[in-house]
Write a structure and sequence with these properties.
Strand 24 and strand 25 form a beta hairpin. The termini are far apart. The strands form 8 sheets. Strands 2-16-19-18-17-20 form a 6-stranded antiparallel barrel. The protein contains 11 helices and 27 strands. It folds into 4 domains: 211 residues, Efflux pump adaptor protein, beta barrel domain (Elongation Factor Tu (Ef-tu), domain 3), CATH 2.40.30.170; 75 residues, OB fold (Dihydrolipoamide Acetyltransferase, E2P) (Beta Barrel); 165 residues, no CATH class; 64 residues, Recoverin, domain 1 (Orthogonal Bundle), CATH 1.10.238. By secondary structure, it is α+β, with helices and mostly antiparallel strands.
């Protein structure tokens, strides 16, 4: 029983001593803390503020963005087949993407079945129009032969007047336009029936025989008109002979009547015979006059109208035949264009187009449709590559053509390439419906010394050098804050922080150049904005102190090299001025004869594509790499406005 009573007594004794000790500690700690509070607060403040030592060093301002590698010289293979509908022509076969092809190798096969059916139908129309031409030419020949048959003299005059070829009785002879090209004397003689030179025989006058200049009768001279004329003249001759004979009979009968040998009735019979003979002669003469004055002119006009009508029908038939022939040739050309072949050697890249929503709006594959003038395949030049990067609108104002750039490829992370900005788009690139509202501008960066294995479509990181300065004071951007339009840094001053006005230069995302207000080795508060309320020396609102209004961002300065700032035009401006001044044939390129003296010794080295000409991109590359130096005296004093690249 004794041990059980002693245990509670010991527990109560220990509790009294602990309670006393706790009370003493609780009373002493607040008193000590109250006495030491200002010192602890000051030490806490001093240990919280992070300090930075102002240093001198190299300042680099770069814009880092990502882009896609592409060829600067793409040979585009397009669909040249004319679409018969809105959808286009179906693709039957296409060469695999990425394959290396040789010139004239088949790339794409398009559906040509509809064109072949159209060719068959057009071939029928072609042969029909050809038959119409043959018939119209035969009708013209027949009309010319009819005129020649009626009056060879008028026929020759008509040929001379209208420059038509001669036609013999067997059809059309070899075409010879005597009036237009000056035919030979022999041809003139054949047309004129034996004349000399170009003088055409107009034929004999009515009532005269056709005689050549040498007095020899013309063979085969005549015609229907001449036949009618000779027939009437024979009638006139017979009528004259009959009249003379009747007149002689009458005179003889009249003498016998006076002597009483003939009676009056016989005399009257001879008188009637004379009257009839005179009337027959007058009728024959009148018939000749009608033939010469009316019948001949009427018949010639009718025959000439037949010739002109036949000529018009022949022209219409020939025009229709030419249209059908051109259509047939066009269809056959379209059939040949259905097989697309490589114009040069290269690696096949499909011209697929991705839409705003990320889907393929244009897909190059068998079964898809190809529209007229649509690019199907690109054959890039692997020796001339560039990067197409997209720069946000907040940074695009600092990027100008001629700036240098560093390029790293995701596929080759250890490889760093040199580049030059050659183009900055004036308008933003189209953005996706579901993308950011921030506008981006496409910027083209030329790659110097393209390495083997570089292919289009690779992703690249582009660092565009905006500005570089050596041996300048610079501080982190968070060490500077703005107050009443001026910029300040905080400098520790004992237990306080003193605000020091500073003049700032260019800045990047991390550092800003300090041009005045600080010295090298001086310590400043790193996170100055957190302590600006406790700083001393800041002017109050309405103070007469003039603030330093120099901002952080400035207009970017171009680089001449890695050691200093440029004092002159950019590589792009120099290239444009060279083209403007020395391009004599105005093809926007310089050949060896046009290049100035400093460039001729480096011409082959600068000519990347070996086309014996230097374009703007090649000039920019040479200027950026310093392969040749151009004196400012050789450039125009005030360059005129140049076209965009």
């Amino acid at each position: 029983m004794t041990p059980s009573k002693s245990t509670p007594a010991r527990r109560w004794g220990i509790s009294y001593r602990g309670l006393v000790i706790a009370l003493v500690v609780m009373t002493a700690v607040p008193a000590v803390a109250w006495a030491l509070w200002p010192s602890l607060a000051r030490k806490s403040s001093e240990t919280t503020a992070m300090l930075y030592t102002v240093e001198r060093g190299e300042f680099v301002h770069e814009i880092v963005d990502r882009g896609t590698v592409e060829s600067a010289n793409n040979v585009e293979v397009k669909c040249e087949v004319k679409s018969k509908n809105l959808s286009g022509t179906q693709i039957l076969w296409v060469v695999p993407e990425g394959k290396m092809v040789e010139p004239n190798e088949k790339l794409v096969e398009l559906d040509k079945s509809a064109l072949e059916n159209e060719e068959n139908a057009q071939l029928i129309a072609y042969y029909k129009s050809e038959a119409e031409v043959i018939q119209a030419r035969a009708a013209l020949d027949a009309a010319l032969i009819a005129l020649k048959e009626y009056d060879p003299v008028a026929y020759r005059d008509y040929l001379q007047k209208h420059g038509l070829p001669d036609v013999d009785s067997e059809g059309r002879s070899e075409v010879s336009r005597t009036a237009a090209n000056g035919s030979s004397a022999a041809q003139g003689q054949s047309l004129a029936g034996g004349g000399n030179g170009m003088v055409l025989d107009t034929g004999p006058s009515p009532g005269e025989a056709a005689q050549p200049s040498n007095g020899v009768a013309v063979a085969n001279e005549g015609g229907a008109y001449r036949q009618q004329e000779l027939t009437i003249r024979n009638e006139i001759a017979v009528a004259q002979e009959n009249r003379n004979r009747a007149k002689n009979y009458y005179e003889s009968s009249y003498g016998l009547f006076k002597k009483g040998y003939l009676n009056k009735l016989q005399l009257e019979g001879d008188a009637f015979a004379l009257l009839k003979a005179e009337n027959d002669l007058e009728i024959a003469n009148t018939k000749l006059q009608v033939l010469e004055k009316f019948t001949r002119a009427k018949e010639l006009r009718r025959l000439q109208c037949d010739i002109e009508s036949a000529q018009a029908k022949l022209k219409a038939a020939e025009a229709s035949h030419k249209v059908n022939e051109a259509l047939l040739e066009s269809i056959r050309t379209q059939i040949n264009l259905c097989t697309i072949r490589a114009p040069c050697a290269g690696q096949v890249v499909y011209a697929n187009v991705t839409g705003y929503r990320g889907n393929k709006e244009v897909l190059i594959a068998p079964g898809e449709m190809a529209r007229e003038r649509q690019v199907l395949i690109r054959l890039p030049d692997p020796t001339q590559m560039q990067v197409l990067a997209r720069i946000s609108e907040a940074k695009i104002a600092m990027v100008v053509p001629g700036m240098t750039a560093k390029i790293r490829l995701d596929a080759f992370p250890d490889l760093q390439l040199e580049g030059t900005v050659i183009k900055v788009d004036e308008f933003p690139a189209p953005s996706s419906w579901f993308g950011s509202i921030v506008k981006e501008y496409e910027t083209t960066v030329w790659i110097h010394d393209t390495p083997p294995g570089l292919r289009p479509g690779l992703t690249a990181e582009v660092r565009i050098l905006i500005e570089r300065a050596s041996d300048v004071l610079q501080v982190p951007v968070q060490a500077v804050f703005e107050h009443l339009g001026a910029f300040y840094c905080l400098v520790p001053d004992g237990r306080q922080f003193r605000a020091v006005p500073v003049g700032l230069g260019a800045s990047n995302d991390k550092y800003v150049i300090v041009e005045s207000g600080l010295e090298e080795g001086q310590q400043i508060v790193l996170n100055a904005s957190a302590y600006r309320d406790k700083a001393t020396g800041l002017p109050e609102a309405g103070s007469s102190l003039r603030p330093n209004r120099r901002g952080v961002a400035r207009v970017p300065r171009r680089l001449d090299d890695e050691n200093g700032l440029r004092k002159g035009p950019s590589p792009l401006e120099i290239a444009k001025q060279l083209i403007q001044q020395f391009d004599a044939n105005r093809d926007n390129r310089l050949d060896l004869e046009e290049a100035p003296e400093p460039w001729k010794s480096h011409f082959e080295q600068c000519d990347i594509n070996n086309d014996a000409k230097l374009d703007v991109a090649e000039l920019i590359r040479a200027i950026a790499r310093g392969q040749t130096r151009i004196k400012h005296e050789s450039l125009p004093a005030e360059p005129a406005a140049q076209p965009e690249l």
